[in-house]
Specification:
mainly alpha; transmembrane helix; single chain
């Protein structure tokens, strides 16, 4: 090992794209807070304003934290794989908890106001995203975080894990866009078409959600920005493969 040597630099452009993603993410949260505070009366739990916790929690959990969890393997390129994996799982777990608070907020608010649940396209897409996200997290922890899954089983499941991770991020953003539109049509349907400030702000929030998704998606998709395996990981992986599969490290394709 090269003790004392500085870690290799990040690939050109990666840091800039990650910085833009974080700037967009924080602006998203600030814009959501500004919309709810300025036009919707703010957020309070045991009150008629309980519903407003829903959009705030969903943008924070299912978009910002989920997006950051996807970026973990690109940002922490030279840290131990185990630590990076734990942070990836932790951010997704935190996103799930915050999203659950947002879901409770909307059901309790509906019950208090006598509004029916789960009839809109937004609610169907949103609930599908949450349930599948929870399932993806549990499977990910089972396969990759806790010991037990064989090397070949992990290898076979990994492409599915990566695909559904990106697909659920896209579905989460799509659900948010549907939610923004639904909220505007419920709250300001009579003035929305006149380009009122609330409608313009909420539309801008929607565009920022799309932009955040595109930047995160681009960083994750760039092949040369993928996390390179460390030397000790390669050695460990070969030893593990030999033990579990009975193959010689030098043999095979």
């Amino acid at each position: 090992s090269m003790d004392g040597a500085p870690p290799p630099a990040s690939p050109a452009g990666l840091s800039a794209f990650v910085a833009v993603s974080q700037l967009l993410g924080l602006t998203l949260l600030a814009t959501t807070g500004a919309w709810l505070g300025r036009y919707r009366g703010g957020v309070a739990w045991h009150s008629p304003l309980q519903f407003n916790a829903h959009p705030l929690c969903m943008v924070l959990g299912m978009v910002f934290l989920q997006g950051d969890a996807l970026l973990v393997y690109r940002v922490f390129r030279h840290e131990a794989k185990r630590s990076t994996k734990a942070l990836h799982a932790l951010l997704h777990g935190l996103a799930l908890v915050i999203a659950l608070v947002g879901i409770i907020a909307v059901f309790e608010s509906h019950r208090a106001k006598g509004i029916p649940d789960m009839y809109s396209l937004h609610s169907w897409c949103g609930m599908a995203a949450f349930v599948l996200y929870l399932l993806q997290w549990l499977l990910g922890c089972g396969f990759f975080l806790f010991p037990g899954a064989s090397f070949s089983l992990r290898g076979r499941y990994k492409p599915q894990h990566i695909f559904f991770g990106i697909a659920l991020f896209v579905l989460s953003i799509a659900s948010c866009l549907l939610g923004i539109t639904e909220m505007l049509l419920f709250k300001i349907s009579d003035s929305y078409s006149h380009f009122v400030p609330e409608g313009v702000l909420a539309n801008a929030l929607g565009l920022m959600l799309v932009a955040f998704g595109l930047v995160v998606g681009y960083v994750v998709a760039r092949e040369e920005w993928k996390r390179p395996p460390l030397a000790e990981e390669l050695a460990l992986s070969m030893d593990f493969k030999t033990l579990t599969e009975g193959e010689s490290p030098g043999g095979g394709s």
